[in-house]
Design goal:
The structure is a homodimer. Chain A has ten helices and 42 strands. Chain A is mainly beta. Chain A has two domains: about 100-530, Methylamine Dehydrogenase, Chain H; about 540-655, Immunoglobulin-like. In chain A, the strands form ten sheets. In chain A, strands 9, 10, 11, 12, 13, 17 and 18 form a seven-stranded mixed beta sheet that branches. In chain A, strands 1-27-26-25-24 form a five-stranded mixed beta sheet. In chain A, strands 33, 34, 35, 37 and 40 form a five-stranded mixed beta sheet that branches. The radius of gyration of chain A is 27 Å and the shape is globular. Mean pLDDT of chain A is about 90; it is low at about 1-10 and about 25-90. Chains A and B meet through helix 4, strand 4, strand 11, strand 31 and strand 41 of A and helix 4, strand 4, strand 11, strand 31 and strand 41 of B.
Chain lengths: ~650, ~650
């Protein structure tokens, strides 16, 4: 029976939510069974309250908060949990020496600020791409060009990247760009996948925290971002203590110009966003419909509202001038009381869900958006085809399977299965999408199997799960805690990204490998190796800096206190064996790597001047600094480039100022 | 026949050196056989010269320099090269899910500035330890304490760490500290292995580049560093253009206070250093005995001098006041002409070797120092027992096997074998130490086998090879180029750290795994897991900051324009739901993580204030900033800590200044 046919009493949903909290409290109240960690009961202010009271009083914080770290231990549904030791089914993630991985994995690095490129199935880190951080290995944030980009992009030296998204053409990855958000500072960055480097950062006005981030399928018309934190608009200190005037925003950024196009003001805090496959709907999870400012207030009510943004309707509102301009950006009013939401085609539809849902993922064929319950043990399936005509939950909720405790994210294998991460149960649950539509709400009938993971998973991703044609085979569970899984490395332990073989069909899930991850990957996305076309040598036409030849190498005085030093690099030699500048000179140093051979990188390091940057074959980089301290400074090559690499040096002589 | 018995004509050594260059040129002149890289012949100024002339004219640079990048291809001694595909002998580096690695590997990160902790045999990166770089994942360089340490340690935001060294007691690793050098800025850092974090950085006076770095065995009396770049002393701009007055220094730093104790001035450029096992000798390789300032000049002569530092003799000179004080440091004159080198017990012995040797490693029993030839195809074995009585090469050179082209580093398995990396041949050569002593100089008789690596190895390390009791079993070859070994990731490709099984005895070497490495690991060192005792929760007694309890949480105005904000963290809650400061206030924010459970880290991020740092269980961290911009800022937790992690926030309200 489809949910369209038998609408269910919304109170049942609330009951399920209460059951969840009961289960959580049962775990917490029985520490002897639950854990060997002596301190696991620390900080549980809600324990003296009755269970119902606990939830109603809005102090779920302590109890829910305490669950991380003990889930190794019980497994809410342990009878369904499979062994963590790999079976002998033959699934191997070994990539033999010299063989290539089959897939690129792009991992957001969380508050490390970087992206990581990881090969699948080997799980080897192939490279890092600095985005919001600085990186002295490559010179990102050290050269003039990257420094300017970071400065114009907000001037911060870190960011919190969460959701990497590959650009799409016709609903498939085109291999051109990757877009990722900075939750901390409300930014969106673009990474060029020809050169694997960040080429644009947009500091979105009016938004403090962009959490959810996705591209609008099928042709990357926009990069969309969810403003999570509610703040005054504009946030200039006026009315700062009046939360009634706080707001949160949804934003559209142009993927080519990277300029902010428009924003939509909504009620509550936005969380995660994904789009349908036809360019119309962006579905955002949201919490804090109470619009409170503390955690007790944020968890007081029973419901929250998922937001369905109608992109063409928003565009029409902008075109019609139905917006307020704030800091140069058209801001459309998408709150529930807005006149734009009163007509036949509201700009935003609000769909009630159980309290504080977490992720939204749209399935491969675009029929359903899957909203993981977090505090509810269910996944709510929104019928995107029904959405145009209604926002009544009885009409648009297509299914709501009970999957386990703490469901956060869902991914797909393209064979009709969904896989949901269970943060509290520390499991991946595999379930049948059609069976969930046909089953009663809250039923476990669609569940196929559960796989223990270690421990407390956030995102999970299967191969190309966000396209219209997922590849199945492998799934990665990004677990936030590793606890006892690796050699101890001090108090800050790695995360644990686990590789799970999911085959192509009904085959069992099999945990194949643990991989430690430096804090703190948030999400990942996979592309088949044939969809990425990385260049190994720079094309001069692809950058603005002037290519320097060996004949160009020299020092040109450009002003009374400024010089331009040009020099080439090739194996074992800089274009200038030495050069002289005057104390106080502003020195612009331009360097071209004239090598034509792949993988012959040279580094340009200036001791005691905080300068180091890489120059790849046929690339040119520049750095500007002031020569403040008289003396001899040996510029040297930091990339081991040849047998005489050690001897590869230039000598900068800074002559004392006269007098 | 031992070399002690039959001293050899030094000219024979020169002939071998010339043979090497002949071999290199043969490779370079036959590009069709050598490579599929069209541009491999780029930049070979020496090609129009005869081979002997080439060497004599000192333009080896171009030819030697061009070899990197083509060695995949020929293999100077390819008949001896083994297959790169692993055999079916059963050596596996797989560590099953949940199982632990057997060894900690500590990788220097080169100009990434960080250390990396990698498990052996899985080759998984367990964590990173920021040292000379900043790191927003942990907040290294963001908190007051780490900022101050980096500022006092020179104020640079990057470094080039090369040689990680574990502290020793009785010649074995005691698991307390790791010391590593910064080649770029002449610094030495210490990493605390209880907490896996950098706890001291010393900016050594008078030295621009510390390249070689080791601890004085057997009890870590000093951390020793080789100053590589020659510069005026002091380097203040006077006499900067007169290389005759340049000098390079050897330094001793106290491992506890981390203060510079003394320096020794020598001729030529120092390279790598290792010590004997009895606390007397430090052996340094060196190049540029010509004391030239360009690469042609540095490769003009036929010989260089290895330096043997007599540590007790140097200490005696310091005690006797036989030094010049420069920038507060006693500098002992260890140049060849110094009066301190004229008596019975010189402070430094100069031992002639073939031109531009590279590494020095002292073997497990302390009998020999192994000096890899780089430009010579040989490894020179110095007899440390004979060194006290003589520096005559005929008496102290115990053997000189011909091992292959471009030998750079040697490691040991504790079973009488040495393994030398061959940069140009792209191989690891295994040879018998005693057989090399008994053979003629320049003989290949001691060679057991060669293993192809991919490509161009620098350091190699076997398990605990630097102790008196190496563990054999595994060896890692740190190859500088990966070229075709991994999925392409743009022009800056990863290095390739290859894991080779070497067994315990005469068993064949077997290449087991390729592992991509972000640029640019330089060296590594391994310790059995039982030798490291990492804490998982902080001990309050181990830090200076004041522990904050929930009762302490609050805001204290400490001055007209300054406040001290104290707050705790625990799962889902900061100690303060909000706090208010005034525009322009200097805010000191102190945070204690009151969790007692391992692996529950909280992060403290302040949007648009460039602040993020981690606080591990029972740890306290502080940050000081100015609240410049009025508005509402949501402080949030960056470490996914619980089911209600997303709701874990505090709210900073910055009120506008009056008027």
């Amino acid at each position: 029976m489809s949910k369209h046919e038998t609408p269910r009493d919304p109170n049942e949903v609330l009951e399920e939510y209460e059951e969840t909290l009961d289960s959580v409290l049962a775990e917490v109240e029985s520490p002897d069974e639950a854990t060997t960690d002596d301190d696991i009961s620390l900080g549980l202010p809600g324990l003296s309250l009755g269970r119902r009271d606990f939830m109603k009083a809005g102090v779920a914080a302590g109890a829910m908060g305490s669950v991380a770290g003990c889930s190794a231990l019980s497994g809410g549904d342990s009878s369904a949990g499979s062994q963590s030791t790999p079976s002998s089914s033959g699934a191997s993630h070994t990539v033999e020496p010299g063989e290539h991985d089959e897939y690129y994995g792009f991992w957001s690095g969380g508050h490390s600020g970087e992206l990581r490129v990881i090969g699948i199935p080997s799980m080897r880190e192939l490279t890092r791409i600095p985005v919001f951080n600085t990186d002295c290995a490559s010179g990102y944030g050290f050269t003039d060009g990257t420094q300017e980009m970071l400065e114009e992009g907000g001037g911060y030296s870190w960011g919190d990247n969460h959701h990497p998204n590959l650009s799409e053409t016709d609903g498939d990855y085109d291999g051109e760009y990757l877009y990722v958000n900075d939750k901390a500072n409300g930014r969106i960055a673009r990474v060029n996948l020809t050169y694997f480097e960040t080429d644009a950062i947009t500091d979105v006005p009016n938004m403090q925290a962009i959490h959810g981030c996705c591209v609008l399928s099928p042709d990357t018309k926009y990069v969309l971002g969810n403003g999570e934190f509610r703040a005054p608009l504009p946030n200039d200190g006026t009315d700062a203590k009046n939360p009634d005037n706080y707001t949160s925003l949804f934003v559209a950024v142009d993927p080519d110009s990277m300029e902010t196009q428009w924003q939509v003001k909504v009620d509550g805090n936005l969380d995660i966003v994904d789009t349908g496959k036809e360019g119309r709907w962006a579905i955002s999870s949201a919490y804090n419909s109470e619009e409170a400012t503390d955690i007790q207030g944020m968890t007081k009510d029973d419901r929250d509202n998922v937001k369905a943004f109608d992109i063409p309707a928003i565009e029409q509102a902008v075109e019609n001038g139905n917006y307020e301009e704030v800091n140069g950006i058209p801001v459309v009013d998408g709150t529930q009381g807005s006149s734009l939401n009163q007509g036949d085609r509201p700009v935003v539809k609000y769909i009630p869900t159980p309290k504080s849902p977490h992720c939204v993922e749209v399935g491969p064929n675009g029929d359903y958006a899957f909203i993981a319950g977090k505090l509810s043990p269910t996944v709510t399936m929104l019928d995107l085809n029904a959405l145009a005509d209604s926002s009544d939950p009885d009409e648009v909720v297509a299914g709501r399977p009970r999957v386990g405790l703490g469901p956060l994210h869902t991914t797909f294998d393209g064979n009709g299965h969904a896989y949901t991460s269970l943060f509290i149960d520390s499991q991946t649950v595999k379930w049948d999408i059609q069976a969930a539509v046909e089953a009663e709400e809250g039923s476990e009938d669609s569940i196929i199997e559960k796989q223990d993971v270690h421990y407390n998973p956030g995102h999970i991703q299967a191969l190309e799960a966000m396209t219209t044609d997922p590849d199945g085979e492998w799934l990665v569970s990004l677990n936030k805690l590793s606890k006892d899984r690796f050699l101890p490395v001090g108090p800050i332990m790695p995360d644990n990204d686990q590789l799970i073989h999911i085959g192509q069909g009904e085959k069992e899930m099999e945990l194949v490998a643990d991989h430690p991850a430096y804090p703190e990957p948030h999400d990942c996305v996979f592309a088949h190796k044939d969809k990425i076309d990385a260049k190994k040598v720079y094309d001069k036409d692809d950058y603005e800096e002037t290519y320097i030849t060996e004949e160009d190498s020299g020092v040109e005085r450009t002003g009374e206190n400024s010089v331009h030093v040009k020099m080439t690099t090739k194996r074992s030699e800089f274009g200038l064996p030495d050069f002289t500048v005057q104390e106080g000179d502003e020195v612009k140093l331009s360097t071209t790597n004239i090598e034509g051979v792949q993988d012959i990188i040279h580094g340009v390091a200036i001791p005691e001047h905080d300068i180091n940057y890489a120059v790849a074959p046929q690339d040119t980089r520049e750095v500007t600094f002031t020569a403040d301290d008289p003396g001899v400074y040996w510029i040297y090559c930091t990339y081991f480039c040849s047998a005489l690499h050690l001897e590869m040096r230039s000598r900068m002589i800074v002559e004392p100022a006269e007098g």
